[in-house]
Amino acid sequence: MSRPGSVQAGFQFSVQASDGNARAGVLRTPRGEIETPCFMPVGTKGTVKGMRPKMLRDMGAGILLANTYHLAMRPGSDVVASLGGLHRFMGWDGPLLTDSGGFQVFSLGSTAKIDDQGVTFRSVYDGAREVFTPERAIQEQQALGADIIMCFDECPPGGANREAVAEAVRRTGLWGERCLAVHHEAAGCGTDGPQMLIGIVQGGVHADLRRESVERMLDLDFPGYAIGGLSVGEERRQMLDVTEDTAKRLPHDRVRYFMGIGDPGGLLEVIRRGVDIFDCVLPTRVARTGSAFVPEGKMNLKNAIHAESREPLDRDCPCTACSSFSRGTLRHLVMQKEILGLELLTEHNLTYLFRLVRGARRAIVENRFAEYARQETASHPW
Q1: 0.90 cut: is pTM over it?
Q2: Residue 332: inside a domain
Q3: Do 111 and 91 fall within a single domain?
Q4: Catalytic residues
Q5: Fewest beta carbons within 10 Å, which of 11, 59, 96, 366?
Q6: Domain range spanning residue 86?
């Protein structure tokens, strides 16, 4: 499916190779090219915990993600703008994406009141009454100045009934139109240059509601589309089936973004189904709990079996943790809650995913993705 449309000035996505549904592409932005498939590290409050920007660049990061809700609350989008915008604030000169804050707002559950106007809630920082509307979500992102910004959508929980999911689909379409209006009003620009606005598809695991949401988003003609409302508690096979069905209904010439997946097996499965970019806090979060991604699965360094091990985490990994430290040393750092240990595991987990995704891209170009994915997941209990 390919059609002409409103591709944002300064941004261009092209598919360079495909293998089945898997795609290798390039997303060109004013701040550089992003090769896809691409994993985006999450810098929720303006930093990827424990990682300096240069380290991320050297490890292979092509784009970072920051969270609108948290930055709007603290220190405030106006403060970030006054300090030179989000790129300068984060010390990152490459592409940045901000999410709309919708997931964080809706995760407040019963404390949030939702209607067509927006969401009223109490700030987790000081309890103040706040209202997030589609207009505010875009205006906050314009002030922050990221390169790629997201529509404000309603993300129902995984256990939501069909009626609630249908209402979220309707409201997400309504809000998408309002987001687009604010974006166009600013001529597609924020305080730090042009911005690409991505629409979000909702619908839970209901195939007909997903199709309805896709059709509504296509009518609004965004330059890119996200698959939202998954990885929120549904069964993995359902999630993958919905992803495949949704992706095939999206335009071939627009970037596709799966919101919130970061386990190695999951990444390969959504790549297999035609997704281009993805993000998740998982690799950094599990590092802070003392666990590392390794070819055999997830290694918990708190286990006593590693106490005297002189083996590296992964002999083939070039990261600092693997090239300079033993499992025994890393376990000691974790057990003593040393900052270095958490930093080393974070670097390792991100390096692991970057290498995995780069390998997937090469395999797609060389028309051997199925074999690559099979080899990488053969002993991976994710």
Answers
A1: yes
A2: yes
A3: yes
A4: 99, 279
A5: 366
A6: 12-279
